[in-house]
Each structure stands twice: as structure tokens, then as C-alpha cells.
Write a structure and sequence with these properties.
Layout lengths: L1 E5 L4 H10 L5 E6 L3 H13 L3 E6 L5 H12 L5 E6 L14 H22 L3 E10 L15 H18 L5 E7 L5 H7 L3 H11 L8 H11 L11 E4 L8
Parallel strand pairs: 1-2, 1-4, 2-3, 4-5, 5-6, 6-7
Helix pairs in contact: 1-8, 3-4, 4-5
């Protein structure tokens, strides 16, 4: 069995690659351009007993998803979990963004979920899961988040439709939304204000702290486990209650 993570060389994607795989299991991690991060991710996964394979692929096109899945197919192993954690952020207001940026970010952040599901389908078996990383920006305006939030809304619909189409085959599709994390995408959106935004999120959280990797990783492990076999088409928020506030 193998685990495949699009956008799995840094941040949340890397944490999920590590936590959703088992010692001795193959982990295919896709990335866009940062070779150094890919090497570091492979080194970490190897230290933790995994068998990583890094694949450089542009998820902004169907061929990128095909290239990523091809690395898993070459192992002649079923894909137990496929994670979509890739994201591209172009800051700015929607009215001012170029058509090219809008089209490519929508493809990377949303449509590639469908391409990934289609490419991986022959290697998914009963009990397999597809997990998509979403956020509250799918339903709430976040300044500078125009290339991500609306794409998350689109992907939210894809999750529901794919869940129904794949349910007869025992394949589940769910979304996972971790609260504010110090990621590259967050820093692209907020720039020099990122530390301020993180501090404000910590102060606002009714649970008294920010969500940590252990929190969303535990939720992810449950969502792809046999114990969650009847949970599909859902997006689970790991926010400590912060998503319930205005």
C-alpha cells in the first residue's frame, strides 16, 4: 500500500504525509518547484522509516496529476490514501488579477482535485480515502485570499459529488480544514503582517491556543481509518471553535 500527497514536501502536507503513512510504506510527495524542500522532506520521511518518492509536477494541468500518480502506479501498489494539499496563492483583489493567474490558481487549488481523483481511481480500492485540505475561506471573505477562497468553494462541491460517485466502490472523499498555521501560503497572503495575524488568531481562539499539527493529524488519521468508513462528503474543521466566531 502507498500514500500519495500532492503538496507534500512542506507544512501541513508534509505533516500529513508523515502521519498518514506507516513505517515501511511508500509515500509519494508531489511539489511544484522547491527542490531543496523536497530533499529535506524525503530525508525526514526516511528517518521516520518511510520510503519517500518526490515528484516534481505542475498540478495546474491534468498531466501534472497524471505524473504524480504514475510514480505510485510504478510501485504496483494500491493507493491507500491520496491527499490534495497543494495550493498556489496570488495575493490581491480579484478585480485586479490577470486572467492567467485566476485560471492557473483555480486549476491548482481546486480542479486538480478532480484530476487527481481521476488519475488515482485505478489504484484506489475499497477502503481507500481521498482527503482535500480546505479552509474557512471557502465560505468567508478573507482579504487577499481571492485566488484560494473561491477555489476552496468549488472544491467543496467536488468533494460532495465525488463522494457520491465513489461511495459504491468503498472509496471515501472528505475535506479537512486546519485552523491558522504558519505556512508559506499564509505568508504570501499577509506578508509582513503574518506574525500579527497568527497572534490575533491565537488570542481569538476560544480554546485558548492555536491548533497544532498533532490536532489536525489525529483528525486526518481518523478520517482515513476503517472506524470512519461511513463518513464521506464532509469537511471537518479543526479550529478549536474559532470558526464559530464572527
Amino acid at each position: 500500500m502507498s500514500v500519495l500527497v500532492a503538496g507534500g514536501t512542506r507544512g501541513i502536507g508534509l505533516e500529513l504525509a508523515a502521519t498518514l503513512s506507516e513505517p515501511g510504506e511508500s509515500v509519494i510527495i508531489g511539489y511544484g518547484s522547491d527542490d531543496a524542500s523536497a530533499r529535506a522532506a524525503c530525508e525526514r520521511l526516511e528517518r521516520e522509516g518511510r520510503k519517500p518518492i518526490a515528484v516534481r509536477a505542475d498540478m495546474g494541468s491534468p498531466s501534472g496529476a497524471e505524473e504524480l500518480v504514475a510514480a505510485a502506479a510504478a510501485l504496483d501498489e494500491p493507493i491507500r490514501v491520496a491527499v490534495h494539499s497543494t495550493v498556489r496563492v496570488v495575493p490581491g483583489q480579484l478585480m485586479e488579477l490577470s486572467d492567467e493567474d485566476l485560471a492557473h490558481t483555480l486549476a491548482v487549488n481546486a480542479t486538480s482535485l478532480l484530476w487527481l481523483a481521476r488519475s488515482a481511481r485505478p489504484y484506489l480500492s475499497r477502503g481507500s480515502s481521498i482527503l482535500y485540505l480546505t479552509s474557512r475561506g471557502r465560505a468567508t471573505y478573507v482579504a487577499g485570499y481571492g485566488t484560494v477562497g473561491p477555489a476552496k468553494s468549488y472544491a467543496d462541491g467536488l468533494i460532495r459529488y465525488l463522494a457520491v460517485e465513489l461511495a459504491p466502490h468503498g472509496i471515501r472523499v472528505n475535506g479537512l480544514a486546519p485552523s491558522t498555521q504558519d505556512t508559506e501560503a499564509l505568508r504570501v497572503v499577509f506578508g509582513d503582517r503574518t506574525d500579527e495575524v497568527i497572534a490575533a488568531a491565537r488570542a481569538k481562539n476560544p480554546s485558548g491556543r492555536l491548533v497544532e499539527a498533532a490536532d489536525y493529524c489525529a483528525t486526518a488519521r481518523f478520517l482515513v481509518s476503517p472506524e470512519a468508513s461511513m463518513i464521506t462528503g464532509q469537511s471537518i474543521f479543526v479550529y478549536g471553535g474559532a470558526d464559530l466566531l464572527g
